Amino acid sequence: MSPMKKQVHAKAPLRLGLAGGGSDVSPYSDRYGGQVLNATISLFTHCHLQASNDGQLHFHAPDHGVSVVLDAARPGPHEEPLRLHRAVHARFQQHFHDGQPLPLQVTTFSDAPAGSGVGTSSALVVTLVQAYAQWLQIPLGEYDVARLAYEIERVDCAMAGGKQDQYAAVFGGFNFMEFGAADQVVVNPLRLRREIANHLESRLLLYFTGRSRASARIIESQIASANNGPDSTAVQAMHQIRQSAAEMKEALLKGRVDEVLVILGRSWAAKKQAASGISNAHIDTIAEAALAAGACGLKISGAGGGGFMMIAVEPGRRHAVMQALEPHGGRCFPFAFVEQGVESWTMR
Q: Which UniProt key words apply to this protein (predicted)?
């Protein structure tokens, strides 16, 4: 196959953080152990690779309106714009291509807005890693891809955050994840009957609040809170959040969807005590409107501050809740739970 004709495409699913989010962030996970329950959905990040015709390195992110052209031999530091693209390319050029130039056209886009709380940035890195591994024919396993994506984002780019997003994007499906010291991660896939996933799907609205958020400040506040004493309000709230993941796992496996939704709302109440900035007046107004229209619980997916909100609602009240949310500047996203994690393929 001619390298000039080879094209590679990869995609990775985004995820809903159902319970335990934040307990995967150090130093809390190192000291106390983290537990997270998440599920991937039918929104994806995408990456397309092909050889460049001019020997340069081209990055395109049309959903952000950004394109960058770099010298393939000296692509430069991990800086904006498209810092994550640069960092992934540098890793593969140095560690898997003997430092030799990799002149490529790299195009990425996402089905969800950046900063929306569904793991978009981490899924993008996973997609890029998988695409480059496919391009260079490097046999990376699931844990290898997730770990490499985590290192690129958290170490190479020094971006604050946890560990769940990379592993969710790689493995796909419903997963109960455990996090320990020294970056230990164990992914436990949940074998749910499809009818249970369908039932949960039918009881959730996915509402984009209309405001993306930069999670770094919220996560930094959470990190600072974890350094408080073990009896502090924030640490005790994190303990409740971690426990909610185990409780929700048991409820899901037993098909108790109503109980899952109760835990969802309870964990949101605990999360607001774990760090500052997790909720705000805009989120509180949306929540009040949804609950007044018949929603029975809700939770922001991700660090908080904005992005996507999961709203629990009876099927008969679904339309009323959607109507009540219309004046608040956001929109509902249709979604389905998906089992497949990151995928890549080569085209001629």
A: ATP-binding, Kinase, Nucleotide-binding, Transferase
Q: Give the tokens for residue 102.
A: 């990799």
Residue 118 vs residues 156, 168, 250: alpha-carbon distances, Å: 22, 10, 23
| 79, 189, 243 from 158: Cα distances, Å | 11, 29, 29
Q: Does the annotation mark 54 as catalytic?
A: no
Rounded CA separation 332/188 (Å): 30
Residues 248-271 have pLDDT tens digits of: 999 999 999 999 999 998 888 787
Measured in degrees and rounded to the nearest 5, phi and psi for residue 310 equal -95, 125
Domains of the chain, CATH where assigned: 7-191+338-347 (3.30.230.10), 194-332 (3.30.70.890)
Instruction: Tell me how far apart the alpha carbons of residues 243 and 249 are, in angstroms, rounded to a whole number.
Output: 10
Catalytic residue among 71, 165, 231, 284: 165
Query: What is d(CA 36, CA 134) in angstroms, rounded to the nearest whole number?
Result: 29
With b meaning 16 or more CB within 10 Å and e meaning fewer, what string describes 226-253? beeeeeeebbebbbbbbbbbbbbbebbe
